């Protein structure tokens, strides 16, 4: 069912909740079960907490365009009271949702009965004070804000500021700054639309606020560049503070050089010191203090370099893979094809390829590392040949728990949650 | 980007595939994806660059061959006591410099057999198969690829000339419009230039027989070319210098199918309809034009 395809995955700030959005506009929230002393193996499992319809398909009559209901991104707000808040966005509209629990209900009303029907007042002989009685847990979700009509192009990113008051939304050509309480106004802080659209050479592909400095944000472009902007410098941040760009290797030029250098995702490290970017074939770690080239480059699936032509024909070359840091910024993770995902340890320089599939992962079984070998190359048992890869099984969205070694992997319409039981603590 | 012949073939199919993607994106749910179409236009530009480079290289090879032939002919016919020999040399050189005929186009691998007789390849280079015995009149019509110079003074096929070649000629088989572009500007067809007063060559302008195709000399043909030239100038179609900047790459490619990015992002339903039709019309013409090239 195509509307079940998961389009975004995001842990909240404590890792207690995990939200997924899908192509059908639905959001499913999972909650981690508290550790149980009696059943040690059931500790920390995620179960469905709430499901709701976030966005519906819309039709823009003026432009004769259908607006997809697919959820492009979900971002949690830091928790400030008992309720949880998250932002979800499709191509055009961002919504703020309140997720709250109800586990008590008032009983003993004077004027209405248990079913809520108005009592016949003549039957009321005495007054009682209603009391709160426990009930089965109910999770209520309600839309608190709708931020609409601010984007002409397709929204690709949202990011909550560390000031907990503002957030930004980015489309192909513009980035807008919002106040969480104000829906009828937003400030445009980046605009790269050229005066003549025929002069267009690049678009914005992702944007994120710095985790600690509320005035700094970064955005990536289809040309493979990153721009760090400081909102204190100017109202319109068209001029960057820093430009991160790696010079192109002229000997590696091909028909598809521009496509494979387009950055599909950018993430600040938890420390705020590094940036992680993903383009079609690599993942790169950048030091905020070094603009000339990345600190580290990791080959995700370089064996695809000779297959770019067929990947262009079947549109796979346009797939946008996301990337993630672990809590201590020592390991990075990103998805690939054939339901494979990759992890790179920045310290040991070791990497592993794992598979998210029903067949290869029974509950509580240890994941077996996988290997892709070149066609016709020396093949070990269980290796997969490049030509046998299933390009319809792509892992575009992954998330890492903020403090523990728990990862969430979206494989088409299935969500896999893996935990490292031996090494629960991050190191 | 490698430029061997194999790549050029791939370039052609890449161009078709890319145009198809752009066309299909108009009907995709959720509206036109700006990012994807931008990336596809980069592939279009890259493929076109390779394709054109390969064609130039091929023409250069052909002209090199003809140069060798010319020299051999000169050596054979040279007779120091013959006062007319110099004229004969000029004739041969000039004839070699002449626009080739349509057979050469076919031999260069164009797929379409129904190429119009007034093929632009005639403007691009000589015909290696021309028999020197056919026509004794000197011809001063020269290849568009060469800088304008008097016939007798230089070897028209020197490498330097080829390197200075900065003109592109395309035939649109639908409209039979011949468009020549130099440094991004639409240019008069060379034949028209020659017919309209010559290029200062020593020999008077002479008419050529129609069997040679290409540079025709009848009055009505001249007016056809003039008309075509005027039409070409009016068309919103500009091909830029091979050493163009990135922005002109994208804009030129978009101009090709007649609607531009503004067409892709049209906000009115009816306008979008029109742009679709334009894009479709342009799409076919461009694809056919490439094949003829």
Automatic annotation (TrEMBL), chain A:
<dbReference type="GO" id="GO:0019888">
    <property type="term" value="F:protein phosphatase regulator activity"/>
</dbReference>
<dbReference type="InterPro" id="IPR001680">
    <property type="entry name" value="WD40_rpt"/>
</dbReference>
<dbReference type="InterPro" id="IPR015943">
    <property type="entry name" value="WD40/YVTN_repeat-like_dom_sf"/>
</dbReference>
<dbReference type="InterPro" id="IPR018067">
    <property type="entry name" value="PP2A_PR55_CS"/>
</dbReference>
<comment type="similarity">
    <text>Belongs to the phosphatase 2A regulatory subunit B family.</text>
</comment>
<keyword id="KW-0677">Repeat</keyword>
<dbReference type="GO" id="GO:0000159">
    <property type="term" value="C:protein phosphatase type 2A complex"/>
</dbReference>
<keyword id="KW-0853">WD repeat</keyword>
<protein>
    <recommendedName>
        <fullName>Serine/threonine-protein phosphatase 2A 55 kDa regulatory subunit B</fullName>
    </recommendedName>
</protein>
<dbReference type="InterPro" id="IPR000009">
    <property type="entry name" value="PP2A_PR55"/>
</dbReference>
<dbReference type="InterPro" id="IPR036322">
    <property type="entry name" value="WD40_repeat_dom_sf"/>
</dbReference>
<comment type="subunit">
    <text>PP2A consists of a common heterodimeric core enzyme, composed of a 36 kDa catalytic subunit (subunit C) and a 65 kDa constant regulatory subunit (PR65 or subunit A), that associates with a variety of regulatory subunits.</text>
</comment>
Automatic annotation (TrEMBL), chain B:
<comment type="similarity">
    <text>Belongs to the IER family.</text>
</comment>
<protein>
    <submittedName>
        <fullName>Immediate early response 5 like</fullName>
    </submittedName>
</protein>
<dbReference type="InterPro" id="IPR008653">
    <property type="entry name" value="IER"/>
</dbReference>
<dbReference type="Pfam" id="PF05760">
    <property type="entry name" value="IER"/>
</dbReference>
């Amino acid at each position: 069912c195509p509307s079940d395809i998961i389009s975004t995955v995001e842990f909240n700030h404590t890792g207690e909740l995990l939200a997924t959005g899908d192509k059908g506009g639905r959001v499913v929230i999972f909650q981690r079960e508290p550790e149980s002393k009696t059943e040690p193996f059931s500790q920390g499992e995620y179960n469905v907490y709430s499901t709701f319809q976030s966005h519906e398909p819309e039709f823009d009559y003026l432009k004769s365009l259908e607006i997809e209901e697919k959820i492009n991104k979900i971002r949690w707000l830091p928790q400030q009271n008992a309720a949880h808040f998250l932002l979800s966005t499709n191509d055009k509209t961002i919504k703020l949702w309140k997720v709250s629990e109800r586990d008590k209900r008032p009983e003993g009303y004077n004027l209405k009965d248990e079913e809520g029907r108005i009592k016949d007042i003549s039957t009321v002989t005495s007054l009682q004070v209603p009391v709160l009685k426990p009930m089965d847990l109910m999770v209520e979700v309600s839309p608190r804000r709708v931020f609409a009509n601010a984007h002409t192009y397709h929204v690709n990113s949202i990011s909550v500021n560390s000031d907990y008051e503002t957030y930004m939304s980015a489309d192909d050509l513009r980035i807008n700054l919002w106040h969480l309480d104000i829906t009828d106004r937003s400030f445009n802080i980046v605009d790269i639309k050229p005066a003549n659209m025929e002069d267009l050479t690049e678009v914005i592909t992702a944007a994120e606020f710095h985790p600690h400095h509320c005035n700094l944000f970064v955005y990536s472009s289809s040309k493979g560049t990153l721009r760090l902007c400081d909102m204190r410098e100017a109202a319109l941040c068209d001029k960057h503070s820093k430009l991160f760009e790696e010079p192109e290797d002229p000997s590696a030029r091909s028909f598809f050089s521009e496509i494979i250098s387009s950055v599909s995702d950018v993430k600040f490290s938890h420390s705020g010191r590094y940036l992680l970017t993903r383009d079609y074939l690599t993942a790169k770690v950048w030091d905020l203090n070094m603009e000339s080239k990345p600190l580290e480059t990791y080959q995700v699936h370089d064996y695809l370099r000779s297959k770019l032509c067929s990947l262009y024909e079947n549109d796979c070359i346009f797939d946008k893979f996301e990337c993630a840091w672990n809590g201590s910024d020592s390991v990075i993770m990103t998805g690939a094809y054939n339901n494979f995902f990759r992890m790179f340890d920045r310290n040991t320089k070791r990497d592993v390829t794992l598979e998210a599939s029903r067949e290869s992962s029974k509950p509580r079984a240890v994941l077996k590392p996988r290997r892709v070998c070149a066609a016709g190359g020396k093949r070990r048992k269980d290796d997969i040949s490049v030509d046998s890869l299933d390009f319809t099984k792509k892992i575009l969205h992954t998330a890492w728990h903020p403090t523990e070694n728990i990862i969430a992997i979206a494989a088409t319409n299935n969500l896999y949650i893996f935990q490292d039981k031996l090494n629960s603590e991050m190191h | 980007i490698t430029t061997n012949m194999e790549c050029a073939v791939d370039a052609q199919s890449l161009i078709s595939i890319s145009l198809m993607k752009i066309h299909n994106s108009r009907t995709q749910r959720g509206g036109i994806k700006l990012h994807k179409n931008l990336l596809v236009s980069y592939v279009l530009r890259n493929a076109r660059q390779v394709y054109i480079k390969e064609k130039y290289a091929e023409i250069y090879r052909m002209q090199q061959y003809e140069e060798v032939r010319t020299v051999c002919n000169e050596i054979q016919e040279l007779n120091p006591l013959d006062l007319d020999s110099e004229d004969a040399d000029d004739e041969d050189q000039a004839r070699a410099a002449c626009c080739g005929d349509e057979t050469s186009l076919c031999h260069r691998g164009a797929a379409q057999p129904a190429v119009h007789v007034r093929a632009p390849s005639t403007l691009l280079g000589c015909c290696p198969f021309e028999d020197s015995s056919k026509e004794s009149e000197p011809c001063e019509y020269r290849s568009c690829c060469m800088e304008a110079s008097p016939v007798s003074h230089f070897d028209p096929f020197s490498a330097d000339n080829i390197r200075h070649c900065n003109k592109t000629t395309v035939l649109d088989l639908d409209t039979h419009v011949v468009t020549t572009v130099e440094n991004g500007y639409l240019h008069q067809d060379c034949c028209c230039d020659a017919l309209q007063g010559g290029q200062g060559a020593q020999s008077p302008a002479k008419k050529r027989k129609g069997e040679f195709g290409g540079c025709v000399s009848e009055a009505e043909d001249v007016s056809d070319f003039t008309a075509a030239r005027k039409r070409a100038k009016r068309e919103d179609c500009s091909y830029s210098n091979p050493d163009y900047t990135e922005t002109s790459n994208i804009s030129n490619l978009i101009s090709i199918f007649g609607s531009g990015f503004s067409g892709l992002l049209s906000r009115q339903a009816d306008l979008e309809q029109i742009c679709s039709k334009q894009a479709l019309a342009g799409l076919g013409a461009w694809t056919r034009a490439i094949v003829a090239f």
